[in-house]
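Can't paste images in this forum, so I'm doing it all in text. The chain is below; anyone willing to post the predicted structure tokens underneath?
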Amino acid sequence: MPLLIAAFFITALLYASVGFGGGSTYNALLALAGVDYRILPLIALSCNIIVVAGSTLRFARAKVTPWRGAVTLTALAAPAALLGGLTPIGEGAFLTLLGACLALTAVTMLLPIAQHEGEPHRWARAIPFLAAPLGYLAGLVGIGGGIFLAPILHLARWDNPRAIAATASFFILVNSAFGIAGQILKGGEGRLLAAIDAGLPLLVAVAIGGQIGSLLALKFMPQRWIRMGTAALTAWVGLRLLLAM
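Text version of the structure:
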């Protein structure tokens, strides 16, 4: 458990530094530690909420969140996240899907973030149609979905980088809450109690790591270094998980 707590602390620190929650990596770490896969999404999504709640509040206070667009995308995704949480899934399919999510996450972390200029691409109008699939994936596997939404918004020149980061944080926060609701309805009280018993020390670790990560991002470390470190961690954990299957 001490090693797992340390790994969750580092994951939260890195992901919070770049505005994400880290749900896919929490899931993989728990799977590698031999935790029952049926409670992994409950723990990972709870950690997501703790990490992104602070950043969502900071963005809102700074008045950089584009509420109309953020609420529209999230409102389309949240019911699908609930449905994803309710969907039964076998262990093999769950771990395979999780490994694929980790591989994609590592790639998205390496994509450059440009300072957008000019009008959004015409295909940006299609982005709302992607919200529900991302929400469903969030609830099913125990991720927030923002790690995939943000690169799409950047490529579409949907808004400026700070507005996109704020939207991704809000997206992760709400999807994680709806995903947890679905997981609880699917698994019942017993699974919830098991998740609380196994996850409480980890929630404390990510709360501390998330706060430190936000501080590092604001005052000390360049974003490029943080993103490369986060991508390396995600790729390593994903490879370990796929090889262990």
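The chain has a mean pLDDT of 84. The radius of gyration is 17 Å.
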